[in-house]
Specification:
The model has no long low-confidence stretch (mean pLDDT about 95). This protein has a 5-stranded parallel beta sheet with strand order 2-6-1-7-8, with helices on both faces. A 3-stranded antiparallel beta sheet has the order 3-4-5, with helices on one face. The protein contains 9 helices and 8 strands. The relative contact order is 0.21. Helix 7 (about 150-165) packs across helix 8. Helices cover about 50% and strands about 20% of the residues. The two termini are about 10 Å apart. The protein has one domain: P-loop containing nucleotide triphosphate hydrolases (Rossmann fold, 3-Layer(aba) Sandwich). Bound molecules: 2'-deoxycytidine-5'-monophosphate (DC). 2'-deoxycytidine-5'-monophosphate binds near residues 13, 40 and 130.
């Protein structure tokens, strides 16, 4: 195997990308990077500053000035924004609901893609998970996966996850919110959610986490 090895996992919200990327990375001795966390960290900073999401010039400047770093603790990725650990806070609903808008801003994507490529150079063997990893950021990746799942399954996984955290949420509301995010991510002009060229499409609707990971490992072994 050559030194730098990049695996990309793209797909819609709730397809299980983060879970799969983390377990796969552990299994094969790679790092994994959840790139959605970077878009979320910028969104959190915008919310804290009470900026308007229409202020694209201001947001691009803010993104350029923000120091986004990632680190690992017991194999889990931590994300730091200007030195502060925001790993938990970026999962808040308000952040989730607004990140698609921030992810459509060119200067934000430019800045984060730069950090992602630098991370690849630094960490060398990485599973990158996001929306444009195989299409735009790492078109020459060693293995590209597009992970999909039916909307009902994606919503019910998210519902289960929130219930485990003690939150009482309506599954229909989750479905609507996922659909809205997908629509925004797929329709933006820049780096929209797409099946990357040469990507292996995996539908995880009827597969366990273990089965999905096994299939990706089998693709790697080929
Ligand atoms: O995967 P996630 O839910 O944490 O992603 C949050 C948002 O960021 C989602 O709207 C898609 C966007 N995103 C993106 O545009 N490009 C990426 N590489 C990763 C996430």
């Amino acid at each position: 195997m050559k030194n730098k090895t990049i695996i990309t996992i793209d797909g819609p919200a709730g397809a299980g990308k983060s879970t799969i990327a983390k377990i796969l990375a552990e299994r094969i001795g790679f790092r994994y990077i959840d790139t959605g966390a970077m878009y979320r960290a910028i969104t959190l900073k915008i919310l804290r500053r009470n900026m308007e999401f229409t202020d694209t010039v201001g947001i691009e400047k803010l993104a350029e000035e923000t120091d986004i770093r990632i680190d690992f603790e017991n194999g889990s990725m931590k994300i730091y924004s200007d030195g502060e650990d925001v790993t938990e806070e970026i999962r808040k609903k308000e952040v989730t609901d607004n990140t698609s808008r921030v992810a459509a801003i060119p200067g934000v994507r430019y800045k984060l893609a730069k950090i992602q490529r630098q991370s690849a150079d630094r960490l060398m063997k990485v599973v990158f998970e996001g929306r444009d990893m195989g299409s735009i950021v790492f078109p020459g990746a060693d293995l590209k996966v597009y992970l999909d799942a039916g909307i009902q399954e994606r919503a019910s996984r998210r519902w289960q996850e929130l219930r485990e955290k003690g939150m009482d949420v309506d599954i229909e509301e989750i479905k609507l919110s996922i659909k809205k995010r997908d629509r925004l991510d797929e329709s933006r002009g820049l780096a929209p959610l797409r099946v990357p060229e040469n990507a292996h499409v995996l539908d995880s609707t009827d597969l366990s986490i273990e089965e999905v990971v096994n299939r990706i490992v089998a693709l790697l072994d080929r």
